Amino acid sequence: MFSSLHSLSSEFWRSRYVPDAFAMVDPSVKKGQGSAGNERPSSAKRRQSPKIPSLQSDSSSLPADVLSFSVRVSEEENLPNTQNHQKGPETPENKTPGGCSSEVPVNPSTPSRLDICKVKNREIRKASLQKASEILRPGMVLLKNYISHADQMKIIKVCRDLGLGAGGFYRPCFESGGKMNLQMMCLGMNWDPEKKVYEKRRSVDGAVPPGIPDEFKQIVKRAVTESHALVKEKHRKCNPEDRIPSMQPDICIVNFYARTDNLGLHQDKDESKESLDKGLPVVSISIGDSANFLYGDDGDAGKATKVVLESGDVLIFGGKSRHVFHGITSILPDTAPKALAAEANLRPGRLNLTFREY
């Protein structure tokens, strides 16, 4: 009798919680027409731990902090003229006006002009990011267009691979039995939306959450450092650590919102008391379609402030804003960068990664 009850109970849980192999693939694209590697793998492959690709370019010799950006050197201003390049080393007669030579200097310790152009390009991009970014309130910073196209592509690839494996995407349920309006996957530790606790295994199917890729952690570290620079620029006498403390993420909740999905106003308060008391921040990365994001001091949506989060944006809230109420009211259809959606064969909707330290 007990075995029969156990069997019925298992079937009940499976019917509610078993992942449905959600791959974030655009269903309107026929099989074979999308980007390479986007087809759903076999069941045998889905059970294997996916190999996580590096987010850094093997060909770049620039420092790690430069690798977070897609450095684009203007062909007109920063690359040598093709005809002159074929003639050999530069001379006053064939030097490209205002250009950057690719010739290696005699002294190998001296950086080439192309390297100098790349670093200058990075500095211009950084200044542009700081100008577009803003402090929404004490402890809450929005870094606009912070994640490059290349890194967004790689994040999608990693999340797609992890999402099809053990502990991957599923549609969680509330205690009432109703399903949440999103697909979810946890990295590092599992968050149970019914019990409001973190756990080492996902209670609904016993799956162990995949680890957080080191490259993701580096992105979070750089974003927090960038937020400190912005705070320091706006408030020179303030210690940025007091506004947004540094943290080492050991939890990442990955959500995918379809066009009709949303998430009501809530607080992220299930981390440890120590983490919450220190105000260790939540770092949120947006990829895909834009979303209307609300935040405020209470759960009243009518009093909340709205900001649009676009693909590549990073939102950070900690310190005095660690307990801010926040939520997603709607997804703005067809707002994802067209090149990103096409190249990644990304399903319409928004991919969101939120990092925190337990």
UniProtKB/TrEMBL annotation:
Residues the record lists as binding Fe cation: 266, 268, 326
PROSITE patterns: FE2OG_OXY (PS51471)
One Pfam family recorded for the sequence: 2OG-FeII_Oxy_2
Keywords: Dioxygenase, Iron, Metal-binding, Oxidoreductase
Region (Disordered): 27-113
InterPro entries the record matches: Alkb, AlkB-like, AlkB-like_sf, Oxoglu/Fe-dep_dioxygenase_dom
GO MF, any single term: broad specificity oxidative DNA demethylase activity
GO cellular component, one term: cytoplasm
Keyword Transmembrane helix: no
Cofactors: Fe(2+)
GO terms for biological process, alphabetical: oxidative RNA demethylation
Membership in a protein family: Belongs to the alkB family.
Protein known as: Fe2OG dioxygenase domain-containing protein
Record organism: Papaver nudicaule
Taxonomic classification: Eukaryota, Viridiplantae, Streptophyta, Embryophyta, Tracheophyta
